[in-house]
Amino acid sequence: MNHKRSRASGLIGIRGVAEVAGVSPMTASRALSRPELVAADTRRKVQEAAKAVGYVPNRLAGALSRHRTHVVGLVIPTLQNLIATETIQGINAVLDARGIHLMIGEYGTSLAKEEELIHAFLAYRPSGLILQSTVHTPAAAEVVRRAGIPVVETGNLIKAPLDSNVSFSNYAAAKAMTEYLIRRYRKVAYVGFAVAENDRTRDRRRGYAAALRAAGRTVDPACMVDVPVRRQVGDRILVELLQAQPDIDAIFFGGHWIAVEALIECYRRGIDVPGRIALAGLDDNDLSEKLPPGLTTVRIPRAEMGRRSAEGLLKRIDDPNAPPFRIDVGFEIVRRGSA
Q1: How far apart are CA 113 and CA 94, in angstroms?
Q2: Are 266 and 226 within one domain?
Q3: How many separate domains does the chain show?
Q4: Residue 192 CB: number of other CB atoms within 10 A?
Q5: Is residue 5 part of a domain?
Q6: Confidence at 67, pLDDT banded by 50, 70, 90
Q7: 131 and 192 assigned to the same domain
Q8: From CA 171, how far away is CA 206, in angstroms rounded?
Q9: pLDDT in tens, 191-244
Q10: pTM for the full model?
């Protein structure tokens, strides 16, 4: 069935919802905006139809003569670390110079929440979207495609993005750090976040395992530990690993904060770093450098990634015929005292 779409936005409008639900456009509109005025059975049919066709309400209908706003939406996993701040500042510096406002939403580890935010942002007809993820629900991916606006994904470097892609390879970064460690240490463990819907954490585990295999080493499942995405787990897992496998002499943490927590715990317990245990992380900031003896880590140019995402997005906004782009910002192994 050829559902009725808005010629301006490319999204299916209220008439398309009404067609699927078998009701009038006025009834469909009322069921979604004033559901208490509509019979329960009709309301249910309209809501199911809206979900089935990926309907996104226009919050600005009648309020603007333009079909797009001077707004770009950023959907990001977390706002609770300096790494996110660097990316946001890079994006905002470029957009602000053009008088475009940045709208930010945080989804944590839930792809359903990301889908919800994407729908909410599209309702305000932004000029473009930046998604700090490359894995989405099918419904979220579909509604983004229907929206017909420029989109940049930044979570991982991938071959088939929704539109454009600016990032680094999590697989290559983790593989490079593991290679660095196994040239110096006998038994290297890996600690990463346990997020089933996250390709970044999956690729970091793959990179670690690939480096071990390439060096002729055994990939020991007991040395690959998943931890929940929350604070105060790096210190605990450090102690547990050293107690369970005292022959481990290096740990690669696939996240910045858990590596910092482990380093602080070593300092608190008087554990010699790197004499007893070498520690390394992924991502870098001032704390990594200043916390004795300095944390060896993978530096990602987060501010540059944000800046180049925004610059590319603006080019696509200015010229709808401009092709999608894919930019690898790379990474750097930063060697400090911890490993």
Answers
A1: 27
A2: yes
A3: 3
A4: 23
A5: no
A6: low
A7: no
A8: 6
A9: 998 766 788 999 999 999 999 999 999 999 999 999 887 778 889 999 999 999
A10: 0.80
Encode pLDDT of 80-125 as tens digits: 777 789 999 999 999 999 889 999 999 988 899 999 999 999 988 8
Which residue range is the domain that position 181 belongs to?
Answer: 170-299
**CB contact burial 241-271 (16+ within 10 A = b; e otherwise):** bbeeeeebbbbbbbbbbbbbbbbebbeeeeb
CA distances from 78 to 59, 133, 193 (A): 26, 11, 14
Asked whether the predicted pLDDT for residue 178 surpasses 50, the reply is yes
**Shared domain check, 251 and 272:** yes
Measured at the CA of 197, the angle between CA 145 and CA 152, to 5 degrees, comes to 35
- Regarding whether 295 and 306 lie in a shared domain, the answer is no
* 219, 203: one domain: yes
The answer to whether 294 and 338 are in contact (CB under 8 A) is yes
Nearest to 304 by CA among 91, 83, 75: 91
Domain CATH for 142: 3.40.50.2300
Which one, of 134, 111, 259, 113, lies nearest residue 189 by Cα? 259
| CB atoms closer than 10 angstroms to residue 5 | 16
CA–CA separation, 336 and 339 (whole Å): 6
> Using alpha carbons only, how large is the chain's radius of gyration in Å?
23
For residue 231, is it within any domain? yes
